[in-house]
Amino acid sequence: xxxxxxxxxxxxxxxxxxEKSIAQKVLNGQRxxxxxxxxxxxxxxxxxxxxLANHIRQKKHDKRxxxxxxxxLEPTNVCIYTCKFCSYxxxxxxxxxxxxxxxxxxxxxxxxxxxxxxxxxxxxxxxLPQYNFQFYIDLFKAIxxxxxxLHIKALTPVEYHYIFKKAKVSYREGLQAMIDxxxxxxxxxxxxxxxxxxxxxxxxxKCTSAEWLEMHEILxxxxxxxxxxxxxxxxxxxxxxLDHMERLRQLQDRTGGFQTFIPLxxxxxxxEMSHLPESTVIEDLKNYAISRIYMDNFDHxxxxxxxxxxxxxxxxxxxxxxxxxxxxxDTTKIYSMAGAEDKNPAMSTSQLIxxxxxxxxxxxxxxxxxxxxxxxxxxxxxxxxxxxNSGK
Length: 392
Description:
The protein has 2 domains: 2-61, no CATH class; 64-375, Aldolase class I (TIM Barrel, Alpha-Beta Barrel), CATH 3.20.20. It contains 15 helices and 13 strands. It has helices at 2-11, 17-28, 34-43, 46-61, 103-111, 133-146, 157-167, 171-181, 196-203, 209-221, 238-255, 281-294, 305-308, 310-316, 349-358, and strands at 64-68, 70-73, 78-79, 90-91, 120-123, 151-154, 185-186, 225-232, 258-265, 300-301, 323-326, 362-366, 372-375.
């Protein structure tokens, strides 16, 4: 693999000295710095960046590409916060345009998947006073009582920050209580962009960057894993992206608790930032590739296919990405409401496998913690499809 990489690099014409130095670091498994990352963003072409990212991907995972069978539970899209980029939430004054589920209604959605081979429920939504500390304790306990093996990946630091502050408990106390109730891991949402000035502009009032990072650090100390995201392609610049990745990389150095990094593309429909153009596919692929190069201590880079579409997700597998999330069905509205390609994001297991194999990769079904459930290079898919209409 190393020799093949060297030969590929040598065939590229007109490489700059800085690119040769970065390529040598990648070959040696060394970490690049923010200046080098910025050089890649500003001066390097996609084929060169993709070559570096794909080398790292193959070294870590060969052709293995992960997905899981999951579904989303979204308690509400009504929210006290008014993030400029958000197309999903409805303000309290217009709550009649949204939905607010009670515990019984949420359990009814959980029960739709009884007997189906899903392994994870992903719970995120708006922030409202009635969805308080005790509500989520009761919800997590109810899910575990009904289906103990179902992995609960739930709530972002934005939600927990509000819940814990209202309940007058510390982050550590609150997270431990959620773990005791059944929480298994935390998703990566709510990170947006860490630059404080931009964060205040587009997501003012939510937990700060430092608080987001602190919440994850405490969760890792308590023994759970989590994911990390970055919202890109809006008013930030390349330096802001690298600053964001650097803060995550430093926390990962301390805890090792992050599983995957998920760049999230800004979509410009039906929000206060609709005047901004969206990033191009080339820019998306470049961002994935540089993320793979820069986030050297993250095992996985995920392309969230409901946000970028199936075609771009498939392309990303050659630019450092080794995870494309899950079957999802149509239970998430967060990105379809913002103008994502997939208006009703649903893919069956066989469709996911076909998409991965058509890209020349090997489909691996995982659980949330990346334990292998099925290796489809060794077996044919013969399981049950997971497509259930939530009716929401």
